[in-house]
Structures are given as C-alpha cells and as structure tokens.
Amino acid sequence: MERKVSIDRDFIEEKMKEILEKGLGLSQDDPTFNKTPKRVAKFLSDYFSRLDPKSSELKSLMERHFPINYDGMIIKRKIKVYSLCPHHLIPSVYDISIGFIPNERSTGFSNLSKMMEILGKKPVLQEELTQEIVECLDKWLEPKGSICIIHGTHLCIPICGSKDEKPTTTKLSSGVFLHEPDMETKFTNMISDESE
C-alpha cells in the first residue's frame, strides 16, 4: 500500500498527550509521564520511517554494489531485527538469515545487515518482511538466487493472545534456491552448523 503523507512528529506528540490525559487519566504534571509524548513521537517516527514516501534510505544503500567474480554462496546469519506487529504495534524480534549466489554483483556485508534493519522499520507482518527481503536482494543485486529464513518472536502473542512464546519461522527463496532443492539444503545446513 503506497502512502502519500509524510510522518508528522508534532501531530503524534499532540495526540499522545491527549491519549495519556483524556484516554488514560495520566497527568502531564507527573514527571514520570511529562516527556512520554515526545519520546513516543520520536520512537514512532523513527520506527515507521519506511512508511515515509520521501524515504530514500534503502535505495541509497542498495545502489552501493560492485562487480564480483565469485560463484559461491554469500550468507548473513542470524541478524537481529526489531520491528512492530501491525495489529497491536507491539514489538516483534526477528532472527534473520539470508543467502544469495552472486551473478557478477555484490554489496558490502554491512549493507546486507542494514538492508534488513531498514525493511523492518515499519509495522509489518513476518511473511511480508520475508518476501520484501528476497525481492530486495533480487531487485538490487540480480543474483542467481536468494533465500531468507526468519525466526520471529512476536511479543503480541504472549501479551495479547495465548502464552505461546515459541518463534514462528518463515522462509522464501528464488532462483537456484527455489529450483534446486540441494542448494536450499546447503544453505540451511550452513546456518545451522555454525557455532553460536
């Protein structure tokens, strides 16, 4: 869904004051809460930054690629990304592993971690985040294949639903990882066998 409105931090802060005072009966004279609206507005502005249609952070990052002569697998394993559940705006914690086989193009290893962090900066379903990561790798690096596995811990489940705190896993692959099952097996073995 494409947005046309930029994030308005002042508006968020103003409405947060109303929620605290009128909705929850928490006085802004209480030093515990008097800076809460400003903090919440900053947090939401930062964490929803990917919703801003003017944001070019991901494009600027992923345009930084270079030619490479390497036919093996490149893997980033168990990168921790924090996001928000779109249903409750409660944090989700993701352990994300990605892999791709370059097609004469790659990017800096730290860029891969930053790419995942940027894509998580919005309220997003785990399934959608998994797909967006694979699509991002395919779009900007044009690899022979890419894969993403996410183990997600959703705090909304124990807080608002059942008391189940076990992670949920999603996986998506493209190219050789999709069409050659042994490639996917090699990837899952590599991210499982490495020491913690």
Give the secondary structure arrangement, pairings included.
Blueprint: H1 9-23, H2 36-47, H3 57-62, E1 65-67, E2 74-84, E3 91-101, E4 105-107, H4 109-119, H5 126-141, E5 145-154, H6 156-160, E6 168-175, H7 176-179, H8 181-193
Helix pairs in contact: 1-2
What are its keywords?
single chain, 196 residues, alpha+beta, GTP Cyclohydrolase I, domain 2, four-stranded antiparallel sheet, two-stranded antiparallel sheet, 8 helices, 6 strands, 42% helix, 23% strand
Summarize the structure.
The protein is 42% helix and 23% strand.
Question: What does the model show?
Answer:
The strands form two sheets. Strands 2-3-5-6 form a four-stranded antiparallel β-sheet, with helices on both faces. The chain has eight helices and six strands. α1 (9-23) packs across α2 (36-47). The model has no long low-confidence stretch (mean pLDDT 90). Helix content is 42%, strand content 23%. The protein has two domains: 9-51, no CATH class; 57-193, 2-Layer Sandwich (GTP Cyclohydrolase I, domain 2). The longest helix is centred in the C-terminal third of the chain and has 16 residues, at 126-141. The two termini are 38 Å apart. With 196 residues, it is α+β, with helices and mostly antiparallel strands.
Q: Estimate nothing, just give the exact number of structural domains.
A: 2
List SSEs in N-to-C order.
HHHEEEEHHEHEHH
Uncertain segments: none
Neighbour order of strands in the largest sheet:
2-3-5-6
Helical fraction equals 40-55%
